[in-house]
Hints:
The protein is α+β, with helices and mostly antiparallel strands. The chain has one domain (4-199): Jelly Rolls (Sandwich), CATH 2.60.120.620. It is 26% helix and 24% strand. The chain is built from five helices and nine strands. It has a six-stranded antiparallel β-sheet with strand order 1-7-4-9-3-2, with helices on both faces. A three-stranded antiparallel β-sheet has the order 6-5-8, with no helix packed on it.
Amino acid sequence: MLNLEAVARAPVATEPFKFFMAPGVLSAVDLAAVRADFPELRKPGIFPLSELQYGPAFSRLIEGIHSPQFARVMEKKYNVDLLDKPIMITVRGQAQKKDGRIHTDSKAKFVTCLLYLNDVWDEGGGCLRMLRNGSDLDDYAAEIPPNGGTLASFVRSENSWHGHEPFEGERRYVMFNWMTSQAEMDRELGRHKISAKVKRHIPFFYKGV
């Protein structure tokens, strides 16, 4: 399902940190199928796969993300070893205004990828910005609209600052991270599982849902 050629040919920026953006990683047909089989998420936050129910097309997407072929393409992109690193997959379906604050990702994450599963993005806010510093959201090296089928990726570092302008509403993506160790992945997944269980019992309402 994943267009590995689209990933392979995307240029990698090296400043202010290593990152790339690859459009067209999912075809229009596959994107529509994955969107139809996307887990029902009416609350904000990041959810681990173990806490979700989804259809066969979404399941095939997850299989592709787990594939060694995809890992090898990513290894060549960044000149790193990934096959010996565990991969953590989480999902977001809704954004709230506090999302998008500037951060670098935790040290437990080695490489981060975001595969967007929206329609064509014409909303205000919500576009991922690769930043030159940790204090100015307007000082960015690149801005990536979260169009469906677009993959955004970066190598986590002490200066891998990123964020986006506030947005509230549906903003779908699968996030997958090659982690520094199994222990770190287990720790992060445990935290996300607890958060997911808590969210089930907290009502959340906003326009459009």
